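Methods: example folding runs. The two proteins below were folded one after another, and each record is reproduced exactly as written to the output file, sequence line first and structure-token line second.
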Amino acid sequence: MTRITETFQKLKTHREAALIGYVTAGDPEPQSTPKIAEALIEGGVDILELGLPFSDPIADGPTIQAASGRALDAGTTPRKVLETSRKIRQAHDTPLVIMTYYNPVFRMGLNRFFRLAKECLIDGIIVPDLPVEEGGDYTQAASASGIDTIFLAAPSTSTQRLRKIVKCSSGFLYLVSHFGVTGAKAQVEQSTIQLIKKVLPHTRAHVPLAVGFGVSKPEHARCIIEAGADGVIVGSTFVNIIAKNRNNMNKMLEELSETAHKIKTATLRADS
């Protein structure tokens, strides 16, 4: 059993859902990431997702694109992100997930990438631009390293393809809540609730379901959890806090922790 699976099971016994917090590693500078991670974990993040900055983040909106640009300008590299991940995991038990596009993995080589990921104590990997149909070698290398393969499903995913994605996923299934790119939204759309209820019968007995894209407020998290999801993924809200406070580290860390705490509180089941 992987650390991510153990986390979801533990939360379930406590009538909680998972808060998965995303930040772009190296934003605003590489040495800030461990402090940012600690603030989020202290605030209540159950699983920490570190984005590996990439020059062409096609799934991301302006907020995370700008964060990637700042991180790259600060000299962040894939190896630095992995080394930073090791420091974070050595200090905290919270599972760590890397979100990366496939190009950096391909350039490093599958076996080398997963060897380094294992050495750096990574628990799971998300590759949004890798179709499950082309992920055979990838999932095999991940499995051999004991690292979860977290695939994405979208509103347009057919039932037949969803079954294949669920079968190949471990750790959790990342459900994209709406069409488009990442970014904070004003409210949870009814179509997102309907999508969760459509996907749940396929995931319930196989892998936890976590919902991302547009989740930015406690009320968003509560709505999604009440619809039956096992977790919520919050990214742009945290990245925005980093961006606006990048010249005031103390204020940044305080606001990150407070925001994480507010959203985490919303993941408690109503009857807990």
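Second run, written to the same file directly after the first:
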Amino acid sequence: MQILVERDLFADAVAWTARALPARPTVPVLAGMRLTAQGGELTLSSFDYDVSALAKLPVDTQAPGSTLVSGRLLAEISRNLPGKPVQLNADGGRAVLTCGSATFNLLTMPEDEYPALPEMPPAAGTVGSDAFATAVSQTAVAAGRDDTLPSLTGVRIEIEGDTLTLISTDRYRLAVRELRWNPARSDLSAAVLVPAKALTDTAKSLTTSAEISIALALPGEEGSGGDGMIGFEAGGRRTTTRLLSGEFPRYRNLLPSTVNATAELSTATLIEAVRRVSLVAERNTAVRLSFTSEQLMLEAGTGDEAQADEVIDATFEGEDLSIAFNPTYLLDGLAAMDSDTTRIAFTEAGKPALLTGKPGPDGNPDYRYLLMPFRLNS
């Protein structure tokens, strides 16, 4: 194989493909990145049996062929190359990369031991890339990180006609976001659980195109790999991820149907106040919020420890109420709010509170963040 390629295009494609490389490969060959040159196109790919990544870019192919080299090493090298065209020659057990005055001799890996990438599942529909990236970031923040509860480490994606609903929970908070998309079939109905980290990385990295194509193979379907598979494609790049199995909580039962009190505040003002007051909060301690008709008092710190309080304007309807939250979880929800005003709905002081932004065109908020409070000492 012998190719000539523009440096920035090459470095960007290598960096994107390297995202699917396993941190601790079960077999050495999975640490490799395969490069295949054919016609005027170079294809880069990586695969760890759970996540695959593939990128295509135009090159000057002087001799077709393929090679398999250390993916992380190639990514590190490509990040630090000078701003000159890159020439890559691969023959036998070595690949030689030349860029300007720099030359790298790389050992190759046995290609016959490298697994074939999974085929892309059937197309399910398309969605705006920016809207999808925002929705994923808003919901993935509430996904669990405890691998002993794998079903909580994912983002549940529900498909009903032209509506996508993304949901995640770690048992202490719940995030729900709805958005419109263009389904391949109007009667499409499905619910899948996608690893949160893989989904977040994918959504962030595919925003250079206006739309993302989503492909889906449900568990048991042909090409699903048993557990099911979801694929994303945009701008010459595609990735697949094996779906998670397990029972996801019945989250709709957790969302309150009636409320006894509501507060409306400036999102930015509340974020700044929580950040300041929580500076004195010890690990795993709460920030206390006390609402009256026209203001909110935030307090943190107790006893002989450092203490802080701050009062900000708030519109509050209902009987005076005090509630306490984990400040990190509260800030996560506020930061995900795509609205300059946050509405907090309460049922009782000891019950979860529902944070939403401004209502959408249909009168309902498209993002909901349910947060479990700390128990207040009497």
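Comment on the second run: DSSP finds six helices and 27 strands in the chain.
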